[in-house]
Amino acid sequence: MVLKKDIRSYFESLMPSKLGLKSKVKVQRISKLGMGTGNLNFLVKANDRKFVFRINMNPKLKNKSRKEFESLKIIEKYNIGPKPRVLDESRAKFDSDFIIIDYIEGKTCDKLKGYLSIKMIRNLGRLCGKMHSIPLDNNLKKLSVEEAAKGYRNHKKLIRKEYLDPAYKRLTNKKVTEMLKKTYEKLMRTLPSEKFEPHLVLSQGDFCEQNIIVHKGEYKLIDFEDLELTDNASEIAHIFVDFGTPFDEKQKKAFLEGYFEYVKDPGKDFLEKIKVWMPLK
Known about the structure:
The protein has helices at 4-13, 64-75, 118-132, 152-170, 174-190, 232-242, 249-259, 270-277, and strands at 27-35, 39-46, 49-56, 84-88, 98-102, 107-108, 200-203, 212-215, 218-221, 228-231. It has 281 residues and is an alpha+beta fold.
């Protein structure tokens, strides 16, 4: 069990410089933010600054905190996510590894007035464009590559393995089974036959409403556990289909307008690839 008194004690034992502070750390308040995907989060106010104490609650993923901390260090200079402060894997005071990051003020975009308005969607495009425009140096090229970057047909096999085959085993209605098979076969016939050439970009890994914080018109991302490389058209197709509700043509246009403010060369056949990817998402 993670106790607030232990968090307080840990914070107040830190050198102020670790948290970007100048005077001795004095904790003013601790409150529980809730449980994320395998993380327990606490909001800690110290020296009139706010931090997130984020502890790994999944014992099977021993490098979970390190991966997120290193991901945040990678994107730190681009000012699109929280600043990482501390990584502790010692398990000296707590039973698991954890990180301390700056708290980002604001609300998730789905809690705002004007949710999915043209203005908001254009800003989402800008945020996505900022991520995709980050140059891929040698260290970034070592990141894992998302399955979609291997191409349409590989992704199609993934759909069959993870969704259709299990569905076929559970379904007893032959008409529904036959309908699924015909839909899948039709989808297969529409896929381009030429070799797929991915345009690799940096992806936060889960570009969704709950992971986008808005404050005074500024959009930032949180939750960088799954930083990876992906095909740019694949990720945007996923956003168009799965961000709240499927985007209409005006929303797609607004998103791409914001996106192209940062991405000047999205690669060959970019718009056509988005159209091909969308039915697969």
